[in-house]
Amino acid sequence: MSDTKKTRTTVDIYGQQYTIVGTESTSHVRLVASLVDDKMREISSMNPILDTNKLAVLTAVNAVNDYLKVKDRVERLEAEIQRLKE
């Protein structure tokens, strides 16, 4: 059994309450929820006819796109650091 303590954090995202269970700190979970809420509201303001499900999917697509860009940048920087060490 894991020694990692799980916490329960209740957050509000786009007018709905969710209880998030995980090992991250409450402040981290609240930050993530706030960023998701902000992105959903941003997308909704540009596309007010979207239903919540489509809005959530578009928010997820945006988040994964941003993640992949950052991951690629990190990999390129790590490769550059390795090249400079040699």
Can you offer a commentary on this structure?
With 86 residues, this protein is α+β, with helices and mostly antiparallel strands. It has one domain. Helices cover 64% and strands 16% of the residues. The protein is built from two helices and two strands; from the N terminus they run ββαα. It has helices spanning 26-46, 52-85, and strands spanning 7-13, 16-22. α1 crosses α2. The model has no long low-confidence stretch (mean pLDDT 95). Homodimer. Interacts with FtsZ.
Layout of strands and helices, then pairs:
Elements (H helix, E strand, L loop, with lengths): L6 E7 L2 E7 L3 H21 L5 H34 L1
Antiparallel strand pairs: 1-2
Helix pairs in contact: 1-2
Overall geometry comes to flat
Number of domain modules: 1
Strand order, largest beta sheet = 1-2
Helix count, per DSSP? 2
| Strand residues, percent | 15-25%
Strand tally, please? 2
Low-confidence stretches: none
The sequence of SSEs as H and E is: EEHH
* N-to-C span: 42 Å
Percent in helix: 55-70%
Structural class: alpha+beta
Radius of gyration: 17 Å
Question: Could you report the average pLDDT, rounded to the nearest whole number?
Answer: 95
Major β-sheet annotation: 2 strands, antiparallel
